[in-house]
Amino acid sequence: QNQPQKNTGILVYAGGLHLNRYQSLIQIAEALEEQNKTEKRYTLEIYTDGKSKTLYQNAFEKFSCVTFMDYVKHDDNGSVYDRAEILVHIETFDTAYHDFILYSLSTKISEYLATGIPILLYAPGDIFVSEYLRKNCAAAVISDSDRLKDTLHRLTRDSDYRMVISQNAQNLALEKHDLASSLKTFETAVHNSGNNIQDKEKHHVTL
Question: Do the Cβ atoms of 116 and 139 come closer than 8 Å?
Answer without folding.
Answer: no
